[in-house]
Amino acid sequence: MPVIELASDGSLPLPEEIRKSLSLRPGDLLNVEIVDGSVRLSRHELPKPKPAAKPKSVSESDPVDVLQTPMRFIKGVGPKLADTLAKKGIATVEDALYVLPHRYEDRRELRPVARLRPGMTEAFFATIVSAQPMVTKGGRNYFEAIVADDSGSIPLKWFHYHPQFMKRNYLPGRRGIFIGDVSQFAFQREVHHPEVEWVAEGEDLAQVMARDPENFGRILPVYPLTEGVSQKVMRKIMRETVQQYSRSVKGVLPEPIVQRQKLMSLPVALREAHAPDASARIDHLNEGKGEAHRSLAFDELFFLELGLALKRRGITLEDGISFQVTHRYTRELAKLLPFSLTNAQRRVLSEIKEDMIAPHPMHRLVQGDVGCGKTLVALMAALIAVENDYQVAIMAPTELLAEQHYLNIHRYCEQLGIKVTLLTSGVKAKSGVLELIAQGETQIVVGTHAMIQDKVEFHRLGLGVIDEQHRFGVVQRALLKKKGSNPDILVMTATPIPRTLSMTVFGDLALSVIDELPPGRTPIETRIVRDSRRAQTYQMIRGEVVKGRQAYIIYPLVEESEKSDLKAAVQMADHLKQDIFPDLKVALLHGRMSASEKEGVMSAFKGGETNILVATTVIEVGIDVPNATIMVIEHAERFGLSQLHQLRGRVGRGSERSFCILMTGDRRSEDGEKRLEVMVSSQDGFRIAEADLSIRGPGDFLGTRQAGIPELKVADILRDGGVLEEARKEAFALVGADPDLEAPGHDKLKAELMHRWGGRLELASIA
Ligand code: ADP
Ligand code: MG
């Protein structure tokens, strides 16, 4: 029997083992009974929420319904707060349960002032030494209180304050527990706008901490805040919600998976995530490595992957075209090429062939770094379709790129006797192009999204190729597919898609990776140059041009419509022409030019008639001029890393040494610096993409928010990549074994799946 000694303050510290065995957590109440002369402790269960406090439609017996209880039925949530919460997507207790703390604070003990750590939120007990209004050197008013304990002192500062209030409360000699973010300027640590819990005269520190068990003596959850709701209020209502409703959350994962993955039950995981045990490791919690977090993330990712697995399966169940590989044109093309395919190209091509031969539609994503030769692989696939008397649609994101693809493909196909047609919005209806396509007189159509308009009809579309998928949404993919009867779809992207994204956003596509560049490419030397050293950059450009090479100078143009950016590019081109390189040929290319103007500029540059091409980002994807050996990117800090990488891929296409100069302002943020350094140190598109993703987050990374998959509330695909991988494995295995989710117990899985995916799950096999 454990013997417990009363603490010096008379309180009763419960040993860890007892707390554990009663599953006590901070703030719980204890029942103390005396039975037959011995003391019996048990956890005091709070009364269940009164039925009256719930809307009529809710019944205890239906767990899903209980979780739909509106937040206004939570103690402490009035109509106004309920409104505020609902606006932020926290309408029901289920919503609330899944708003997890984004970090945790360690309030298990107070820190001596001398040991307060800059960059951390700390709580400390100290006495006010002095307090008065002050003025900064810059003339800004603030209030300063110096506080101290035995170990040292630290200034507290308020830049927004109520003078009367501060004067009344911050009196020398007064003691308090202060909580705030510790910052450091030069060698001085300070705390701005701390919270305070006053300690009354004669009151003991332990008494104060016991008075507020919500905020002391435990690991504190820190919630993402909603305007108008303080951390304190948030903690209180979350605590209420978790205590009353977490037990109503029913996990539906099959037992073998729970066992294999060593998952906590959802109610326990939720409680643990919102109110971690005092013995938890705070660093693990903050890095999302806690068991509770892993269990919740797994659950969420499992349903995401289950949906994707079913989608994939739905696709593979559809009837599609079973192509025959006759080699008639593909062999011919191989003979025409001045080089042979890389091993990676061969491998990916054989994966594509297998799909095309199969009697189900292909849905394959080919990803590969800039310049790895995706176009050629696509063309080979196109030839297989043509060999089978089918048409092919190749869709590119910009007119410029469509035109370039067209020229490239046309060049080869002409020699093979295959007709290729360009279809962009610039092509007039009366030109007869639409008839050519509808009557099947043209075999390969290269174009922009103009191709998916209603009026475009294909005679017999067998293969759709989408280049640079990240620019197109799921919708465009579906529309292109509708242009034929279950044609094969091949999606290509030069943005190396981090594995985590290929398992989620693109998770219903089969994946091929071209992970090898054609031989003979030399690495590109990348440098960061500040504006003040611009002359040096011009010197380098001149040096390359003298050697007979060509240069790109790129301007950021976030939106084609942004006039000011366009103006900057136009002015710069003029300035370069007149003042810097009057003896050289400088041309300008931007998105507002007509297709024929653009084509003129591009072909002059390709032909070597122009030395320097000043361009906006229309140049980004796919442009191929091997003689260009230097690229200068203005305002490099305004680009995403993946975009910079794509741009950079326009040089280094020949065997000459190439350069990429990233121009930046003279003043840069530390973050910006770190970002651009990645470009200098790496040529590996995958590494750059990973870095880009971790800096910008998935939404920005893809350019637009990709619709079509459920939003993740708990999991963070970057941090939880390992969990994602496990969840995907389990979900795909489950669908492999039970494609219709008919096995005993899987009906619950099916219902939960529908609940999580909402209307987004258009499943052929499980409608
Ligand atoms: P991306 O993958 O960026 O679309 P491209 O298809 O534009 O790359 O190819 C880049 C360049 O490499 C083109 O000039 C193309 O002709 C050339 N190329 C493609 N495959 C090979 C190969 N196996 N060997 C040599 N050059 C190749
Ligand atoms: Mg390409």
Automatic annotation (TrEMBL):
InterPro entries: ATP-dep_DNA_helicase_RecG (IPR004609), DEAD/DEAH_box_helicase_dom (IPR011545), Helicase_ATP-bd (IPR014001), Helicase_C-like (IPR001650), NA-bd_OB-fold (IPR012340), P-loop_NTPase (IPR027417), RecG/Mfd (IPR047112), RecG_dom3_C (IPR045562). The keyword Glycoprotein does not apply. GO terms for molecular function: 3'-5' DNA helicase activity; ATP binding; DNA binding; hydrolase activity. It holds the Pfam family Helicase_C. CDD domains: DEXHc_RecG, RecG_wedge_OBF, SF2_C_RecG. It is an enzyme of class 5 (isomerase). GO terms for biological process: DNA recombination; DNA repair. It catalyses: ATP + H2O = ADP + phosphate + H(+); Couples ATP hydrolysis with the unwinding of duplex DNA by translocating in the 3'-5' direction. PROSITE patterns: HELICASE_ATP_BIND_1, HELICASE_CTER. Residues 533-694 form the Helicase C-terminal domain. Residues 43-62 are annotated as: Disordered. Residues 355-514 form the Helicase ATP-binding domain. Keywords: ATP-binding, DNA damage, DNA recombination, DNA repair, DNA-binding, Helicase, Hydrolase, Isomerase, Nucleotide-binding. Its EC number is 5.6.2.4. Plays a critical role in recombination and DNA repair. Helps process Holliday junction intermediates to mature products by catalyzing branch migration. Has replication fork regression activity, unwinds stalled or blocked replication forks to make a HJ that can be resolved. Has a DNA unwinding activity characteristic of a DNA helicase with 3'-5' polarity. NCBIfam families: PRK10917.1-3, PRK10917.2-2, recG. Belongs to the helicase family. RecG subfamily. This is ATP-dependent DNA helicase RecG.
